[in-house]
Automatic annotation (TrEMBL):
Domain PIN, first and last residues per copy: 1-114
Top-level taxon in the UniProt lineage: Bacteria
Protein's name according to its UniProt entry: Putative toxin-antitoxin system toxin component, PIN family
Xref: SUPFAM superfamilies: PIN domain-like (SSF88723)
Organism of derivation: Sulfuriferula multivorans
Length: 136
């Protein structure tokens, strides 16, 4: 099974050791599914982890370990972004899902319109709670 994890899910796993995002992160680390990422997402994680709001709650060493782990996954170098989203910063997530032939895109961002979309191609777009209930 191939899964795209929105950066907000990854950050939530690092911030709170309990809850669906952490369970998803641990399941991925236990090789229960394959994560698809991209250079764009790795850059976003590096950039966002430096925001003062996140620096206050994230441990830099844990972010570094997460980035190192992500660099050992399926990394898409060239994304063709053809789908529009309410938040243009999330278009790369849809491109990762379609290019990487993901089964799921897991996001906690209810404002960006990804969850309302429900799917892109063969990829289901779900919350961390739904992913845990259906997959883990």
């Amino acid at each position: 099974m191939r899964v795209v994890l929105d950066s907000n899910v990854l950050f939530s796993a690092l911030i709170s050791p309990h809850g669906a995002p952490d369970a998803i992160y641990r399941a991925w680390r236990a090789a229960r599914f394959e994560v698809i990422t991209s250079r764009a997402q790795l850059d976003e994680i590096r950039r966002a982890s430096r925001y003062p709001k996140l620096q206050a709650v994230l441990q830099p060493a844990r972010v570094g370990v997460m980035i190192n782990n992500l660099q050992r996954t399926v990394i898409l170098d060239h994304l063709t972004i053809t789908l529009e989203t309410d938040d243009p910063d999330d278009a790369f997530l849809l491109a990762m899902a379609t290019t990487g032939e993901a089964d799921y895109l897991v996001t906690g961002d209810r404002r960006a319109g990804l969850l309302q979309r429900g799917h892109v191609g063969r990829t289901r777009i779900v919350t961390p709670a739904v992913f845990c209930a259906e997959v883990l």
